[in-house]
């Protein structure tokens, strides 16, 4: 929107050459403020010419309103110069402008100009030479009196009387009254062309007399006819009859009300739509309000914005589902390698929709590390079903109004992101992806996760309430898919409304297949290279996946492939003929030596150092843990640890002190020294309940002076009694151990069921050691297993069952 231009400056700098904007059915008088909708090509060009220059143009009326492309002879020779205060290009090609009329000019000649009409003009003294006389005072008073009489009869704005009371100059008073009389173009033009101010005011006074007589007579006749014609009809029929009569009167007078034209456009759009009854009633109510408002008032802008949203939303538009499971399987396989269990679940979902079209079904949530294909799976589902796909990111969202919208109490209010995305989709049943649902926040502006409860509940979202719309909107046809890296940050109530589908990380073999079949061809095409001239060997893709990247997904692998393709593209752009086979040697030339990861497997064992396995939002990671004895007492934990991990460290130290008496070690060593536990990479926050056994193993290694084996990594939580509790993310942790060269993984016995989800080729390369007590952990991880002084206590599963009561012998 453009800034205002000072009117006084514009008058002083009035140019002699101006672009012309022809007016069809009214005359512009000086000092008027006109809102106009410009639709004709030459008129739009005139507005653009004005904005490109001094923002001024000439408003001149047509002699014949039916002429769509008026020639110079079709225009009057006297018009009004106006300055463009604001302009806005609308979506239908029209331009809405707000004009401030300045002064009257006379056209001297027309100038040939490409795209728009231009003229040479001469300013006219609009107020003439009349001196103030008693006759002039009498005419001014008579005009004011007649305007006051005409106000209720012509339904003129009340501010007209207030303005006329404050206007003393006859010429300006004549222009003001004439601009509100809704005269025929010829009559209004006749008034405009009178230079003498008193003569012009006399003509206005005569027309006021005529309007008073005609309006009074017509009001009496219409009152009698309407009372008889509208007796017994409904409110809607009466309103339609009166509106049609108003159109007929305006047509007879040759007038078109811009407000009426705009309202008619909204009504025409509503007739083509099928809205729910509540929405239809609210839209019609707002239309009636809009008819009674000034078109440039702030409240009118709020109503106009609301109506635009209501008529643009896809209330009754939906795409037809394609539920061909064979085609869906082909689409999923073409877009994604592996993820077989996830694809099977999606096909089951589509199968249910095929058998029962009105099935609401679950809200799916894809959970897994970055780069495993969560968002692209949603796109594939939309493509398989032939639905539109929309996506919004919820990361960092803290305002509830982002979901439910803002209330219509101020200019600029908007619906929520849900309704905005539906308008963008153009259908009421798209595939709607809510990305990063685990990163929602909350503050004093509300809790967006609570607002999402209604969106993601199949029992409630058929009548979703957006504060801006204030009427229910049916979301039951939308297929919602959420994505998350971690499930823990999602509120339990919100998680309960979704069916979680875990997407684990990829094995090295899977990454090589994905890179060779998907990433390499895509990046070669994206960089404009010839697919036949550039080839990545399988060994180079494997090197990229295992030596240049260390991740659960394939996002960084894709970046490394793109980096190689960029260097080839630069050579091709410089004119070099490209024909390359990318092998390991070429990777070293383009990307440098492989990355050295700081947390890789140590070459030799160290006393007090153990390697744990962690599960992060980026997948599985190895976690080296170091223990040291320093003078003093107590426990020190460093490495930016969370409360849960600190508690694991305290429990591990307490258990390590309790078992030193059971092995050949100094029982008081841990009591006489301060135990310092450190986890490197202190700038990265760390927390979670799976580091207990690793901390305890490092402390016992320190106390017994026996190093931990370098080929073993471990995970599990510990109790004070030495029991090992189950943990999550076993597959991701096993993949992390494999990436960093560990061949043995110690895990809780209760997690053996999770090992079944690990690919067979991965199980062959890693030995999984199930444990249930800390004794078993130490026997497995220390290079020299400790000599226990007491035999291990039998677990509940190993104890013999007692004899039945009937078989017992009485004492």
Attribute tags:
811 residues; alpha/beta; 5-stranded mixed beta barrel; 5-stranded parallel beta sheet; 24 strands; 17% strand; elongated
Taking strands numbered 1, 2, ... along the chain, how are they ordered across the largest sheet?
A: 1-3-4-5-6
The average pLDDT value, as a whole number, equals: 82
Got a strand count? 24
> Main beta sheet, described?
5 strands, mixed, barrel
Query: What portion of residues belong to β-strands?
Result: 15-25%
Q: What would you report as the Rg, rounded to the nearest angstrom? A: 40 Å
Which shape, going by the Cα principal axes? elongated
Number of helical regions: 29
Structural class comes to alpha/beta
Distance between the termini: 101 Å
Low-confidence stretches: 1-9, 796-811
**Roughly what percent helix?**
40-55%
What does this 3D model show about the protein?
The protein is elongated, with a radius of gyration of 40 Å. It is an alpha/beta fold and 811 residues long. The chain has a 5-stranded mixed beta barrel with strand order 1-3-4-5-6. The protein has a 5-stranded parallel beta sheet with strand order 8-9-12-7-13, with helices on both faces. Strands 16-17-19-18 form a 4-stranded mixed beta sheet. The model is unreliable at 1-9 and 796-811 (pLDDT under 50). The protein is built from 29 helices and 24 strands.
